[in-house]
Design a protein that fits this description.
mainly beta; 5-stranded antiparallel sheet; disordered N terminus
Length: about 375
């Protein structure tokens, strides 16, 4: 669940409230209130971005951009559940377990620079034409920027919606509503090709996917939710724990999500699979990072992963801000942080030159994009 959070902080005196809890169909789940929120809960973000692909109104936001913070080294996680191996700056050991030194013939070069820059300065945000008069909270954008999913409204009236476009310079087409079903409206994810929509089950004990055959009519309507590739997640959580916040990687080989409750402090998990279409195995918590650890009921909610899996985007309920977490090459943990301020639920394009997010608009929370 998204929880409640202050949308603007010092950026503006205007505070919206009411990202309440809501399920499509029958259940209830907390989403960031659209107004009157308290610190540590996500509620809209002001965007910043100079140019925009989508036609809309330019809205000046104060980009509360922080500087890169280095966290202390933490214990690295395992290969499946921890930070992706190919994004770590460590080298494999030899047969005896000793590190391979440069010049031994078995060393690996350091990974390339992260596709997302920690020093990027995002311009003023531009309103996406898909925004509605109600609150619109971004759920996902495909890496190619051709499909977008978001939740309109809150509580029992919330609806999960999506839209497509032919090229990234076009405006998105008319919003389409996903048929009501027994799933949560707290968060949703899109596959890289825009053909799979992943939702949290209404009871929080599993994930389901909705599938379509094309982004264009007549095959662009999503079917009913089924367990599909997420069947291994059902019924395996201990009592008191729940799933949330699904995020898919750009190459369809990694699945990030939350497991929370039951006193857990490491709540961001990762699962990996070899081939697209394979059933996802149950993952494991990311490598330990104090900056991603839950504090009581307040969590760090993943919102997107960069195309190279070196940068995790998340809403920080503890600090009340959207953040980017970069992998620390010495530990493999997401342990270096940059604040994005009130740009809530942020997700980047494949090249990380465009940022999509939700923010306070003229009268409600809207969808925006920003570039650097």
């Amino acid at each position: 669940m998204r929880g409640s959070f202050p949308r603007f902080g010092a950026l503006t005196a205007l505070v919206l409230a009411g990202f309440g809890a809501g399920w499509v169909g029958c259940s209830s789940s907390a989403r960031p209130p659209a107004s009157g929120s308290t610190a540590g809960s996500p509620d809209a973000a002001t965007h910043d971005s100079a140019a925009s692909h989508d036609s809309g109104t330019t809205v000046d936001g104060s980009p509360d951009e922080g500087t890169l913070e280095g966290g202390g080294p933490e214990a690295a996680g395992d290969a499946e559940g921890g930070a992706p191996n190919d994004a770590q700056g460590t080298t494999d050991g030899g047969d005896d377990g000793a590190p391979v030194e440069a010049g031994d013939g078995g060393g690996f070069p350091p990974p390339p620079d992260a596709v997302c820059s920690p020093t990027a300065s995002w311009g003023a945000g531009t309103l996406l034409s898909a925004s509605s008069p109600s609150d619109d909270e971004l759920d996902a954008i495909t890496p190619d920027e051709l499909s977008i999913a978001w939740t309109e409204g809150s509580g029992s009236t919330a609806t999960l919606e999506y839209a497509d476009r032919a090229v990234a310079t076009d405006s998105f087409g008319a919003p389409q509503v996903v048929a009501a079903g027994s799933f949560s409206t707290a968060r949703a994810a899109l596959s890289h090709d825009g053909l799979h929509l992943v939702v949290v089950d209404a009871d929080g004990q599993g994930f389901s996917e909705l599938v379509r055959t094309s982004r264009t009519a007549p095959g662009n309507t999503f079917g009913a939710p089924t367990a599909g590739a997420y069947s291994n997640f059902a019924g395996v959580l201990p009592a008191g724990e729940s799933y949330g916040d699904p995020v898919l990687s750009a190459n369809d080989s990694a699945f990030y999500y939350s497991v929370y409750g039951g006193g857990l402090t490491a709540t961001v998990f990762r699962a990996a699979r070899l081939l697209p279409g394979d059933a996802w195995p149950v993952g494991a918590a990311l490598a330990a990072s104090s900056g991603l650890a839950a504090q009581g009921s307040l969590r760090r909610l993943p919102t997107a992963i960069s195309s190279d899996e070196q940068t995790l985007f998340f809403w920080d309920q503890v600090l009340g801000t959207e953040r980017m977490a970069f992998i620390d090459e010495s530990t493999g943990a997401f342990d270096n942080f940059v604040d994005l301020g009130t740009r809530a639920w942020a997700a980047p394009s494949s090249a990380c030159t465009t940022l999509y997010y939700s923010s306070a608009g003229a009268s409600s929370v809207d969808l925006f994009e920003a570039t650097h």
